[in-house]
Design brief:
This protein is α/β, with parallel strands linked by helices and 347 residues long. The chain has one domain (33-343): Aldolase class I (TIM Barrel), CATH 3.20.20.70. 44% of the residues lie in helices and 14% in strands. Helix 9 (209-222) links the parallel strand 9 (195-202) and strand 10. Helix 11 (272-290) packs antiparallel against helix 12. The longest helix has 19 residues, at 272-290. The chain is globular, with a radius of gyration of 21 Å. Bound molecules: iron/sulfur cluster.
Length: 347
């Protein structure tokens, strides 16, 4: 049977994967009652998630998508997209049945083909009409697709700035956009009042604290609504993890990786002090991005030992910005508690 690895007499036999499904519309919508029905925690949550597409045509060195593409012999990069009719039909059905205030699209990159977006904007706004969030690449945006996203009801987007240093972005991460292009794309999103959650990776292999300050500066210039910083983790099977191991930045003890990327860097730094500064900056990053005038103070604070107050600052910014800027919806106490567990930070 395809998709299986089996052990025969101590030997592992891996069979090739099943060919990718090309017509996603042929799938029945997921039976959400299977999990909403057993968990009030999930059922009562007012954000409902959907997938409009599968696959990604890009090959960022830190991401799982290139490994999927290798597994599927170059087929994964051919993005498969649901029709607007099928997608909106599923969402409308879910919204009718379950209390919903906000819709989140979770595929790697939300479809931006103009004809697809035009049809989606018309169907979604008339049949669902709820604010939504999606994942985008800033270098794919232009005046036309941003206007269509806004017309459909796009409230917030998740984009990767990742690093403020253009050389690291190009040579280490495999992403080509210039800082000027990223700033311009953010300006376009702002012009339609679309809120921006920016992902950033601090502590990249071979990068310095000064590089991470460049990342902070780029977030300030882009005027993002929430600058979320993570400490880069070497996930096994990714090109960047192999690079980190080969160049002595990482010892390769993958089993010891933490559950969260908000805690510590697993890399080897020249001095413990350098590592602590990067870890502190990651906790205070959103404050520095929101208040550029406080940058000197943030830099000074990074000289202290990592502590629970910084963890608390990170958690507070995460909840305030998620709640007020990115996913505005009514949250219950249990949702807050679940989110605290999800961050996996010591309190
Ligand atoms: S980081 Fe984003 S754009 Fe890059 S390969 Fe992964 S999903 Fe695609």
């Amino acid at each position: 049977m395809p998709n299986f690895s089996v052990k025969i007499d101590g030997r592992v036999e891996t069979l090739p994967p099943r060919p990718l499904l090309t017509d996603l519309d042929s799938l029945a919508p997921a039976d959400r009652e299977l999990y909403y029905g057993v968990s009030e925690e999930i059922h009562g949550h007012r954000i409902r998630s959907f997938l409009a597409a599968r696959g990604c045509p890009f090959a960022c060195t830190y991401c799982f998508n290139p490994a999927m593409d290798a597994l599927y012999q170059g087929q994964w990069r051919h993005v498969r997209v649901r029709s607007p009719e099928s997608l909106v039909g599923e969402i409308a059905g879910v919204v009718r049945r379950y209390p919903t205030e906000f819709v989140a699209f979770r595929e790697s990159i939300f479809p931006l083909d103009p004809a697809w977006l035009e049809e989606f904007a018309q169907l979604y706004s008339s049949r669902v009409g709820l604010p939504f969030y999606c994942h985008l690449r800033l270098d794919l945006l232009d005046a036309r697709n941003v206007a269509l996203l806004a017309k459909a009801g796009c409230y917030s987007v998740n984009v990767g700035l990742e690093t403020g240093n253009e050389r690291l972005r190009r040579d280490l991460l495999g992403r080509g956009a210039s800082n000027a292009a990223l700033i311009e794309a953010c300006r376009l999103l702002h012009s339609h009042r679309i809120r921006i959650l920016a992902n950033n990776m601090l502590g990249l292999p071979g990068a310095s604290f000064e590089h991470d300050l460049e990342t902070l500066r780029l977030n300030q210039l882009c005027r993002v609504d929430y600058a979320l910083a993570m400490l880069w983790q070497p996930y096994p099977g990714t090109e960047l993890a192999r690079y980190a191991e080969a160049h002595g930045y990482y010892a390769g003890n993958y089993d010891d990786l933490e559950f969260t990327y908000y805690g510590q860097s697993p890399l080897t730094f020249p001095r413990l002090r350098d590592k602590q500064r990067v870890e502190n900056l990651q906790k205070l990053f959103a404050v520095g991005a929101a208040l550029p005038w406080a940058t000197p103070l943030v830099k000074t604070l990074t000289r202290l030992r990592p502590n629970r107050v910084f963890n608390a600052v990170f958690r507070s910014m995460y909840f305030v910005f998620h709640q007020s800027e990115i996913f505005p919806h009514r949250m219950r106490l249990r949702d807050w508690a679940a989110n605290i567990r999800h961050l996996g930070l010591e309190s």
